[in-house]
Each structure stands twice: as structure tokens, then as C-alpha cells.
Amino acid sequence: MEPTGVAERLHNKTILITGATGFIAKLLVEKILRLQPQVKRLYLLVRAGDQASATERVRSEIMQLQIFRSLQEKYQKHFSSWFWDKVYPVAGDVSLKNLGIGDVALAEGITEETSIIIHMAATVNFRERYDRALAINTMGVKHVIEIASRCAKLELLLLVSTAYVNGKESGIVLEKPLHQYRSYDGQHDLDISEEMALAEAKLKELVCRNASEDTIRLTMKKIGTQRAQKFGWTSTYVFTKAMGEMLAYEQRSRLPIAIIRPTSTTSTWKEPFPGWIEGIKTIDTWVTNYGKAILKVLPGDVTTVIDIIPADTVVNAMLCVISYHLRSQPGLIYHIGSSTRNPLKIGELIHIMFRYFSKKPFVNAKGEGIKVKELIMPATMASFYKHMDIHYKVPMQDVARRGLSTTDELDRYNHLKREYNFTVAIAEVYRSGTFFKRRFDDSNMQRLISMMNKRDRELIPCDTKFINWEKYLMEIHIPGVMYCDSRQATRARL
User: Which reactions appear under catalytic activity for this entry (predicted)?
Assistant: First the structure.
């Protein structure tokens, strides 16, 4: 059967969305409600102790957001009743069986009604505790699959993963699946059940030794990093997301599953309005700290392509997959990114940042505009550390030799030390992105885009080819990031 348009696809459908209070999920909820007011119901699974708490989270963290302004204006005084007629909060936890839904009747109602499941719940901390990351990012997929298996009307299970499950691969990265029992480099056997047992055993050992909470947390974080690197992944986050993909792909013959892999998500490009973002993400750490003249050095190859994609483009791509993915092509992987269609080089990004803050300098607490210089980009990690020694370590040693006898000397020493530690941490965290030469093939995604009818090309535009990066960054993204940063700083002071 030929796919229908997105509005028709969502008409009178019941959809279960996990991780509903996440950045992309909020935009997805808004877009579905705006695009198809006749959607039957959106079950939003949120972490909460009971139904009242879940409802309050949806009310405060989703419904009252600025992104729902156009819907509020459309329905005016009826908006609240209309919203709650469509949206049903569900208290739960993807790390638990049955998604932690304690209300048996509600769980049965969900499995009887649901046609589409969109699994977005995840912990995105790169250095998360291994036990927690496994429970949410890996076992969460298993628990969603168990629910999906009981959904009599299920048409699609859409798993939201990340493009960076592709490990340390360079070159053109294909939309290929990951298989259990195989490390990314093929050098080690990988068994998810054994990884779960290892994490559980280590945690039990630490508890039996009466280890402190800090010791348990740090130890479990360290184990996660070690296991990820052993099997060919860069962090606990991408490793556990990869294992979640493996579990999903094994079910492709009996369940209608599709997996999407977005790259680094940035603020909205167009919808529901330009520049909306929650929190500081991906390249935004560079942007904010460069604008404040804290980040002055970043190692990397200026010709490296950095793959970013606006959040509303990700949402539109998800809706495209929901509408045009065919069961006759089960288990397909879809990369959602820009590095193939519309590549942006790090050198170009750095120059745009310099131009922006030269024109609109960040104003500090004293009301002073901060002047920035072009970001220094050593071409190797060795040259980076040499630069840091000359400009930070040697001056710190000079100040320390003088005995730190005055307040000015102590302040200078502490300033250099903070800046050194921060810059090194940023360099190490992002070195895979600033040096790796890779682009994410999106042939499967482009095939779906080519299938879209004319109306859907307007309703859910998701081809990154048409993004003008300079205009987007200068006029939308960087201003949005700095506004978000200022709001976070204000809240921190209150």
C-alpha cells in the first residue's frame, strides 16, 4: 500500500511517546498537535511517582512553554480543555518492565489503542553511570519492544538513536545496522546480557563493601567508559545507545521497526519560531564560552566537517519516516544530518562566531562588552598541549614561584588554572568531533524525501540542503543560545 501524507497518517491515531519532556519530544508534540488537530490521543510517558505528578510535569514542562503560543492563540480560552482532550500523561519509567506503568487498566488501554510508538527516552550524559545508562538506553528499548509486541494495532515503532553509535569510523558512514555479539571493530565478542550482569555484579560488590555514594558513582562511570572503549565506542552514552539499537534490530522481522540517527541537534530553524532551544547543547559550549572570552584555544582541523541539524528539521524528518517508511522495507536506518547534503566546516563555524561576537559582544555583569580574538586552532593535540604549556603552565609556575603573596597574584593563578582545566576538558571531550573526517550518508532519508508529496514538502521540510548556515548561525542560532545562556545564569542567581 502506498504511503499517505503526514496529516492523513496521523488522523485519528493514538501515539505513545516516551521521554516526552525532552527537547526534541516537546517540539514533536507541538508539531503533531498543530499539524493534525484530529489526532486521537498522545500518551506521554514521563518519569513520575504517580499520575498527578505526571500531569503536573506535562503541564509545567510542556503545555505552558512558549512553543505552544500559536496553538494557544488559535484555541484561546479553549486551549487547556482541547490540549488535555488530546494529551494523556502517563507516569512511568522505561528502565522498568511494563515501562513502570502501575495502572493495569491504563497499560491495557495503551496496548489496545496505540498505533505508533516513538521511543525517545534516554540519558544523554556521555559519562553516565554504566548501570544507569544500561537501564535506560539499552534495557529501555527492550521494555518498549515488550509493550510494542502487545499492541494489536501497531503500525510503527520508531526508535530515536544517535548517529554517533557509529563509533570511531571515519570517511562516509553508511546507514547500516549494528549486530549484537559483535564489537564495532569486530575484535571482541559483545553480549548485552553479560554487560548487564557485569554492571549488576560490580554494583553489588560496591554496596557490600559499604562504598560511599561518591565512590559508587565514580566507579560505575569509569567502568562505563572502559567498556565502551574496549568495544570500539567513544563514550558510555553512544555504547549503550548502540546496544539498544541491537536489541531493536533483532526484532525487525516480527515488528514494524525503524531507527533514526540524528547528528548534533541545534536550535529551531523555522518552527514553531526560529531560535528556540533548551539548555546548552553540542557546539553551544564553544559558542558561549568563546563569546565570554573563556575559550581561546580549541584543537582541530579547520577542514573537518561538523554535522549539526536544527531541532525542527529533526522533528520533520521523524514525521517523514512515520509517514513514508514502508513495512516492506523493515529495519531501515535513517541518518538525519547535514554533512553530506550541506557540509559546514569547523573553520567556517569559528569564523562566523568571531564575526558575530565582534559585532555583538557579550556584556558581562559589570555592563562591559567583552572583546574576542579569532579562536586559535592547533592542528594536532601535541601542538595544543605545547600551546597550553607556554601560555598557561609556565605563567602559573612563575606566579607560584613568587609565593602567591598578594591577592592579585592568587587571583591570576586561580584564573589561569581554571581556564587551563576548562580548555583541556573541552579539547578532550570534543577531539573526536574536531579531528575525525567523517560524513553521515543519508541515502535512505533522501529516498523518503523523494517520495513526499508536494504538500508534505511544505508541511514537514527536512532537506538540510536549503539551510544557509551563515544566516542561520548569525541571525538565529547564536542569538538563541546566548539568550538561553543568560536565562540560565539569571535562574542560577535567584
Answer: a long-chain fatty acyl-CoA + 2 NADPH + 2 H(+) = a long-chain primary fatty alcohol + 2 NADP(+) + CoA
**Is 465 part of the annotated catalytic residue set?**
no
- Catalytic one of 237, 249, 356, 472: 237
What's the rounded Cα separation, in Å, for the pair 89 and 49?
A: 12
Task: From residue 17, give the alpha-carbon distance in Å to each of 28, 80, 148, 179, 199.
Answer: 9, 20, 12, 25, 28
Retrieve residue 431's grid coordinates.
577531539
**What is the pLDDT, as a whole number, of residue 269?**
97
In whole angstroms, give the CA distance from residue 356 to residue 140: 41
For residue 485, what pLDDT is reported?
Answer: 83
The rounded distance, in Å, linking the Cα atoms of 211 and 205 is 9
* Residues in the chain where the model's pLDDT stays below 70: 1-3, 327-331, 489-494
Question: How far apart, in whole angstroms, are the C-alpha atoms of residue 480 and residue 488?
Answer: 12
243, 138 in Cβ contact below 8 A?
A: yes
Residues 6+ apart with CB under 8 A from 365: none
The answer to whether 237 is a known catalytic residue is yes
**Which residue in this structure is represented by grid cell 541539524?**
309
What does the DSSP 8-state code read for residue 250?
Answer: T
**CB of 469 within 8 A of CB of 342?**
yes
* DSSP code of residue 273: S
Q: Is the CA virtual torsion 225, 229, 231, 232 positive or negative? A: positive
For 193-227, write each residue's pLDDT tens digit. 999 999 999 999 999 999 999 999 999 999 999 99
Residue from 164, 241, 324, 413 carrying the catalytic annotation: 241
Classify each residue of 151-183 as buried b or exposed e, where b means 16 or more C-beta atoms within 10 Å of its C-beta: beebebbbbbbbbbbbbebeeebebeebebeeb
Residue among 38, 42, 10 nearest 25 (CA): 42
Instruction: Identify which of 232, 209, 226, 206 has the alpha carbon closest to the alpha carbon of residue 217.
Output: 206
Residue 1: the pLDDT is: 46
Query: How open is the CA angle 370-372-378, to the nearest 5 degrees?
Result: 145
Q: Which residue has the cell 505508533?
A: 116
Report residue 332 as a C-alpha cell.
531501515
Closest CA to 35 of 54, 59, 17, 10: 10
| Gap between the Cα atoms of 413 and 83, Å rounded | 55
With contact defined as beta carbons under 8 Å apart, do 331 and 177 qualify? Answer: yes
Residues with Cβ < 8 Å from 441, sequence gap 6 or more?
A: 172, 173, 174, 175, 335, 340
Strands 87-92, 257-262: pairing kind: unpaired
Instruction: Give the pLDDT of residue 320.
Output: 96
The alpha-carbon radius of gyration of the chain (Å, integer) is 24
- Among 129, 291, 141, CA closest to 223: 129
* d(C-alpha 235, C-alpha 121), whole Å: 18
Cell numbers linked to 197: 550482569
